[in-house]
Structure formats: structure tokens, C-alpha cells
Design brief:
The complex is a heterodimer of chains A (about 300) and B (about 450).
Chain A lengths: L21 E7 L2 E6 L5 E4 L2 E4 L10 E4 L5 E5 L3 H7 L9 H10 L7 E5 L5 H10 L4 E6 L2 H14 L5 E5 L2 H4 L9 E6 L8 H7 E11 L2 H11 L3 E20 L35 E7 L9 E7 L4
Parallel strand pairs in A: 7-8, 7-10, 8-9, 10-11
Antiparallel strand pairs in A: 1-2, 1-6, 3-4, 5-6, 11-14, 12-13, 12-14
Helix pairs in contact in A: 1-3
Chain B lengths: L3 H9 L12 E6 L4 E6 L5 E4 L2 E4 L11 E5 L6 E5 L33 H9 L4 H10 L9 H15 L2 E5 L3 H11 L9 H10 L7 E6 L4 H10 L4 E6 L17 H4 L2 E5 H8 L34 E3 L17 E2 L2 H10 L3 E5 L5 H8 L8 E6 L2 H13 L3 E15 L6 E2 L9 E7 L11
Parallel strand pairs in B: 2-11, 8-9, 8-13, 9-10, 10-12, 13-14
Antiparallel strand pairs in B: 1-2, 1-7, 3-4, 5-6, 5-7, 14-17, 15-16, 15-17
Helix pairs in contact in B: 3-4, 5-7, 9-10, 11-12
The chains are: A alpha/beta (about 300), B alpha/beta (about 450).
Protein name (chain A): tRNA (adenine(58)-N(1))-methyltransferase
EC number (chain A): 2.1.1.220
Enzyme class (chain A): transferase
């Protein structure tokens, strides 16, 4: 299971794969898949067929072979890996936003967190990790089928005891009254969050934190207007992740031959092994170089945080 | 949907308490972030604002998030609860189309007719800060000509000077990291709060986890992890040499005894020697406190720039000191070390600006259980690149990635929304990955 909710079944143990486990099948950093292990199960992919029966008893993190001799790795699921493999029923939140939201909402074990909408449950999984083992996440989506799929996912990842999925139009009806004054934090990912802000204010404990995620600045503008009366410490952020490429390269340290050093056609990519040294004294040793990746996610959404004022 | 259990649990945990109590740690935000002070609330503790000392007694038992204003009184200045007008500052209702501008403003220092002698006289007569601010506004020849936004700015500036406000904050990883990043970034290795939050995610920190850390950032990482463990699992600080790295920032958090017990340390030698069956060095069962050079005041930094400091406020009464025993950071028990040897740590987080990442990770990675995630923070990219390259070559880990978080804050105002003019351009690099099993040596490739 994704979290060590039961202390007797901690994360840190020699983890051996058993029948019924959820594993993340890792081909490459951008090709992963969640698989439920079953004794007679077979995973088919472009590398061939992998029999689950051969996985059982191996430690997580092991390399396993297909009938064609190709390999994949079997990893233990974490909320981060789950975010990369879950089925997208909606646009989801990714790690940079997720981490920041959990930190800024000041979620610690034992907290009660309200979320709407549930969407694909990417953030919900991390919220559950943060409130465990004694807290709870109540997440709402107005889409009955989507809520049901999310519920199935939480069952699959073993989070059902920490997450309750409700079907409700939060934007239209607000949060249920039973949560009045009991929420430590509220997270909104809705098209018109400003409509829910009065309700969110009722749910939060004094000094509790609200976060609203909106892709468009106009939404942020209206939300901030709505926050002013009851909330304080209103702050809007954008958080992105820049990833880097690392490789080994040979960089020439001096001209190879007289005359041809300046005007040179672009050379073919050299591999780690150096070509002929052309008789010069210069040694060009391979160096590890790093640069930002050429493409990146440029925008996800704006995160607006606010604290419920204390009027007491 | 009953939430009874969760609520009951909550009330037991003073860590998540929403009210201050005698002896709790607080973060005092003075004048909207101009000054940040960590303090322990006792009847005897005081806070110096300007040249006046104020007792912190009135703050005990108040909800976190409440605001206080400094007021003059017969027995010196004191802090009194300030409740903001529920209507906000009223700016939004007024005309904000910008019909006024600065064409009539001349900067010749004659706009204010109230002299400092006048103000002193008002003070002597016991005028409140707000009254002085109002008098300054009434005597400003240019105030009415200013735009609404400038008027508000003027009011805030004067209020900060004559009626300083103190906001009572909970010392959480978020606020502590922000405070240090703002005032003493070098103490926390220039790690911005978004980088810290990524480390906690990538290190899969959750209840019941046994997290191995190398924290050379004064304990900010250790404290943040302990906060997320909530009194379960362990955060085990390992170190090279004979003494553990100091974790004094953990004392700024409001960690309960339960949580502090979960912060332990063990030397690399102990963790490794035990691995090879040798015995752990002396004092196994005995849990020893981290040897700090002194009491709470040891981390206190003189306010060199006029009070703009993260100042852990010194508790003036010596009687308080014994109560303030350091609970966090005891030596890991033999039993715990043995269990980690058998089972491995569930994850690893390294934040050691002084160490070569590859040098340390190759030593500690074998201590993790298979498929354990890890994250390494560094303020320089090159050592992480080398480390990542070596991990790939040695086939020790997969899913390797170096990333850098980027954080931009916005000013959101009607018709005046834009990113902040000043921003932090760098918050650190993170290398993350997952340890793979080396037990089976398969040689075939894709």
C-alpha cells in the first residue's frame, strides 16, 4: 500500500512483493504504470510478457525480465509515483504545486482537511499522506462517476481510511454544515472559487488556512476580492519546476589542428570515448555537464492562500 | 461522515494547538514582516519594540493569528489585542479608477506641519499611537491630494512607527523557513520554503516513516520532518566524525515531547559498523541530548540592522531555564539501530552544503531499504550533476532528476495585479531518485 498507516506494517522493512500488492512498473522515467500483482497475472508491453508469478517474493526495487529478456523495475508506490501513473480524469496537480500547498496549508498529522473538487485525486493522495495516521481528508466532487472512480483509486492505494469522497456541488451548495469550525485547512480547485469562500470561512478554525488554485488571473482577482472581508494574510504565488539535463561530454581544451580551430563545421556528437587525439598534447577528458531542459511546463495555476481572521 | 476521532486527537496534540499556552514557542511578526522574533511565552518574557520593553504576558492563552498593538500605559508600554475592522481597509468601496495622480506633489519637506516636539508632547499626555497617526494625517498638507493607494501607504508607514503591531504566528516549518530565508538565509543553506516542501514530498515523509537525514542546515530539515511525522516513526540524523550536527532550529518549533522523542542521531560509523556486525560505540541504551553550546540564547543574533532580525528572544528569568531542557536530538537506541540495519530506512534526505553529495550518498544509500526514495539538496548544481552521473553509472538508483523550484509572488489588487517587483531568484537545487535492489545481478538489457 502507498502509506504505512498501520505502524506494524511500516515502510521500512525488507519489502517483498506479494500477491495483491500495488507496484509501479518502471520502464523509463517517463514511462511507468501501476499494476496490481496477482499470481496468474501477466503484464504485456513493448518489451514482451512479464509473469507476475516471477515477481512475487522479490524485493521492491528489483529488476524483472520479460519472456524476451528485456527488463523493467518494480517500485513501491509513493504519492509522487502515483501522480505520474494515475488515470487523468481531469487536469491534475503536479509535485511542485502539491508540495507547496501541503506546506502552506500547514497540514500535519491529525489535521482535518476539506477539498473540492476531487478530480483525479492527485493532490488528495498527498493530503492523505500529510494528515496520516489520525487526521482525515474530506474531498468533494459534483461528478458522481468521477467521485466513484476516485473512491476506487483510494481503495487501490489503501487510503480509504484517511479519505472520504463525497458527491456534492460545493460551488452551488457550499460545504456540509457538519464541518463548521472543524477544518484546519480548505483547498479549492473550482472554476468560480469566490462563490465558496464564505462557506470555507465557516468551515475553518480561526487562523486556519485556505488555498485556491486557479489557472486564470481573473479568477484570482475575484477570489482575492471575496477573501478580503473574512481573511487576512492573502498571498498569491506561482510555483514551477525547472528540470535539468545531465550528461557526460568531451570539451576540447585547445585547438586540435592549426588553422581549422575557428571555422569548423559542427561535429557529430561525440560519445564518451575520445576520437583520435590528432597527435596534439592536449588531453580532453570527459566532463559531467548540466543545463536546464529545453522545454518545461510554463504555467499550471496561481495558488492563493489566506488565513481566517480571528475575531474572537 | 463523522469527524469525532480526528477532532479528539487534535485537542490532545499541543503541537497543533490553536491557542498559545504558557511555555509555548511563538513567532512574532512585527509590523507585517519588518521584524520576526521567535519567543517562548512565559510570564517573564518580554519583547523590545523600538526602545520600549513590552511584557509578552498578554499573549498567553490567545488564539494564534491574533494581532496586538503597542499602546502607552501608566506602567510603561503594553501590548493590547487589536481586532481589525471586518470591512477591511475600505479601499475597495471607494473610487479606484485613479482620477488623482502625483502632479500636485512637491517634495520640499514642508508638507507636515506637526513637529517632533509636538509629537513628544502628545505622547507625554498619553496619546495613543492611532491618535498620533490621525494627527499626522490631519496636519499633512498633501494627504488629501494623494491617490487612495498613496494615502493608504502613508497611513501604514505612520502606523508602523507610532503604533507598531505584533502578529502572533504559529512556528511551523513554513513560517520558520520563511523567517530564516528572509533574515538569515545562510543558516539554512539558502533553502527557500518551496525547496523544503519539495524535499519533504520527494523524501516521502509521512507518519511511521523512518527517515535518514544528513541535516547541516541547523535543524530546519529535521524539525520540518519531525513535524510531519507527528510523534511516529523516526528522523535519524547521521553525521561524520564524533559530534552530531547542531539542530538548534528544532527548538523554534512547537514540538511536543512525543515528537521530540522521534528526533534521534547516530554517527555514520555506528550505522555502518553495526551493519557489518561490529558493536556500536558506548552508551547504547542511554539517550544523550545533543550537546549544544548553551541555552536558548545561544542562537540569538545581535540585531545588527536595527532589529530586522530572526531573534530568538532571550527569556529574562533564569528560573525558566531548567524547564527548557532540550528534548530533541537524543542518541538513537541500539534497538532502533538494529532494526534499521535489518529493515533499512524508508527514505533519505540530505541537505549538507559542506559535503560532496556523491561522497555522502554512496555511504548512506546502502542504509536504505529497496525502492526507498531519496532527495539531496544543494545550492550548487555541479556537485549534484556529478552525483547523479555516478549514481547512474553505478546503477544504484533510477528515476534520477535534478530540479530547481521557481517561486513568484503576485500583488493582486483591482486593476493593479502584477508580479512582485522583487523576488527571490534562487531557492536551491534538488536531486531525487529511487534506490534499486542490487541483490539480483541481471545483465540483460533492453
Amino acid at each position: 500500500m502507498i502509506l504505512p498507516i498501520d505502524p506494524a506494517n511500516k515502510l521500512s522493512f525488507k519489502r517483498f512483493i506479494k500477491d495483491g500488492d500495488l507496484v509501479i512498473v518502471y520502464e523509463r522515467h517517463d514511462t511507468m504504470k501501476a499494476v496490481k500483482v496477482s499470481e496468474d497475472g501477466v503484464l504485456q508491453n513493448r518489451f514482451g510478457a512479464f509473469k507476475h508469478s516471477e515477481w512475487i517474493g522479490k524485493p521492491f526495487g528489483s529488476k524483472v525480465l520479460s519472456n524476451k529478456g528485456a527488463f523493467v523495475y518494480l517500485l513501491a508506490p509513493t504519492p509522487e509515483l502515483w501522480t505520474l501513473v494515475l488515470s487523468h480524469r481531469t487536469q491534475i496537480l503536479y509535485i511542485a504545486d502539491i508540495s507547496f500547498v501541503v506546506m502552506y496549508l500547514e497540514i500535519v498529522p491529525g489535521c482535518v482537511v476539506l477539498e473540492s473538487g476531487t478530480g483525479s485525486g492527485s493532490l488528495t493522495t498527498s493530503l492523505a499522506r500529510a494528515v496520516a495516521p489520525t487526521g482525515h481528508v474530506y474531498t468533494f466532487d459534483f461528478h458522481e462517476q468521477r467521485a466513484a472512480s476516485a473512491r476506487e483509486d483510494f481503495e487501490k492505494t489503501g487510503l480509504s481510511s484517511l479519505v472520504t469522497v463525497g458527491v456534492r456541488d460545493i460551488q452551488g451548495e457550499g460545504f456540509p454544515d457538519e464541518f463548521c469550525g472543524r477544518a484546519d485547512s480548505v483547498f479549492l480547485d473550482l472554476p468560480q472559487p469566490w462563490l465558496v469562500i464564505p462557506s470555507a470561512g465557516k468551515m475553518l478554525k480561526p487562523d486556519g488556512v485556505l488555498c485556491s488554485f486557479s489557472p486564470c488571473i481573473e479568477q484570482v482577482q475575484r477570489s482575492c476580492e471575496a477573501l478580503k472581508s473574512q481573511f487576512t494574510d492573502i498571498r498569491t504565488f506561482e510555483v514551477l519546476l525547472r528540470t535539468y539535463e545531465v550528461r557526460q561530454k568531451i570539451l576540447e581544451s585547445c585547438p586540435v589542428n592549426e588553422g581549422d580551430s575557428i571555422e569548423r563545421p559542427p561535429r557529430k556528437r561525440r560519445q564518451g570515448s575520445a576520437e583520435g587525439s590528432n597527435g596534439t598534447e592536449c588531453s580532453s577528458s570527459p566532463a559531467v555537464v548540466i543545463r536546464p531542459s529545453g522545454e518545461a511546463r510554463g504555467h499550471t495555476g496561481y495558488l492563493t492562500f489566506a488565513r481566517l481572521k480571528c475575531f474572537v | 461522515m463523522s469527524i469525532e476521532e480526528a477532532v479528539d486527537e487534535d485537542s490532545k496534540q499541543n503541537h497543533n494547538s490553536r491557542l498559545t499556552y504558557e511555555g509555548c514557542n511563538v513567532l512574532l511578526d512585527i509590523n507585517d514582516g519588518d521584524r520576526l522574533v521567535f519567543s517562548r511565552l512565559t510570564a517573564a518574557s518580554t519583547l523590545k519594540i523600538g526602545n520600549k520593553k513590552c511584557s509578552l504576558q498578554p499573549l498567553i492563552g490567545c488564539p494564534f493569528g491574533s494581532l496586538f498593538q503597542v499602546e502607552p500605559g501608566k506602567e510603561g508600554t503594553f501590548l493590547t489585542r487589536f481586532v481589525e475592522n471586518a470591512e477591511g481597509n475600505g479601499l475597495e468601496e471607494k473610487d479606484v479608477d485613479g482620477s488623482k495622480d502625483n502632479r500636485a506633489l512637491v517634495d520640499n519637506n514642508t508638507a507636515q506641519s506637526l513637529t517632533s516636539e509636538d509629537i513628544d508632547e502628545m505622547r507625554k499626555q498619553g496619546a495613543k499611537g492611532d491618535e498620533i497617526v490621525e494627527a499626522l494625517i490631519a496636519n499633512s498638507a498633501t494627504f488629501e491630494k494623494k491617490t487612495l493607494f498613496s494615502q493608504d501607504k502613508y497611513r501604514v508607514k505612520k502606523q508602523k512607527k507610532y503604533a507598531p503591531r505584533v502578529l502572533l504566528r504559529r512556528p511551523f516549518a513554513r513560517s520558520i523557513c520563511e523567517a530564516y530565508f528572509k533574515k538569515h538565509p545562510e543558516k539554512i543553506g539558502f533553502m527557500r520554503v518551496d525547496a523544503l516542501s519539495l524535499l519533504l514530498s520527494l523524501g516521502n515523509v509521512t507518519a511511521n516513516a523512518d527517515v535518514l537525514v544528513v541535516d547541516m542546515l541547523s535543524g530546519i530539515l529535521t524539525g520540518a520532518i519531525a513535524e510531519r511525522l507527528g510523534g511516529t516513526g523516526y528522523v535519524c540524523n547521521t553525521y561524520r566524525g564524533s559530534s552530531p550536527y547542531p539542530v538548534d532550529i528544532t527548538r523554534m518549533f512547537n514540538l511536543s515531547d512525543e515528537i521530540c522523542k522521534r528526533i534521534v542521531h547516530a554517527s555514520l560509523t555506528d550505522l555502518n559498523s553495526f551493519q557489518t556486525g561490529a558493536s556500536v560505540s558506548e552508551g547504547q541504551e542511554e539517550t544523550l541530548p545533543v550537546t549544544h553550546s548553551g541555552g536558548l540564547d545561544e542562537v540569538s543574533v545581535p540585531a545588527e540592522d536595527g532589529g530586522m532580525d530572526v531573534t530568538p528572544e532571550r527569556v529574562s528569568s533564569p528560573i525558566i531555564k531548567p524547564v527548557k531542557s532540550i528534548k530533541a536530538g537524543q542518541k538513537a537506541t541500539l534497538e532502533a539501530i538494529k532494526s534499521w540495519k535489518e529493515n533499512g530506512f524508508s527514505s533519505l534526505i540530505i541537505a549538507a552544503p559542506e559535503l560532496d553529495p556523491w561522497g555522502i550518498i554512496k555511504e548512506v544509500l546502502p542504509l536504505l531499504s529497496f525502492s526507498a526514495p531519496f532527495a539531496v539538496y544543494h545550492q550548487y548544481a555541479q556537485p549534484l550533476a556529478t552525483c547523479m552521473h555516478n549514481l547512474q553509472i553505478e546503477k544504484m538508483a533510477i528515476g534520477l532528476q535534478i530540479s530547481e523550484p521557481w517561486l513568484r509572488e503576485y500583488q493582486v489588487l483591482p486593476s493593479r495585479t502584477h508580479p512582485h517587483m522583487q523576488m527571490s531568484a534562487f531557492g536551491g537545487y534538488i536531486l531525487s531518485g529511487t534506490k534499486i535492489s542490487s541483490s539480483d545481478s541481471l545483465t540483460s538489457s533492453n
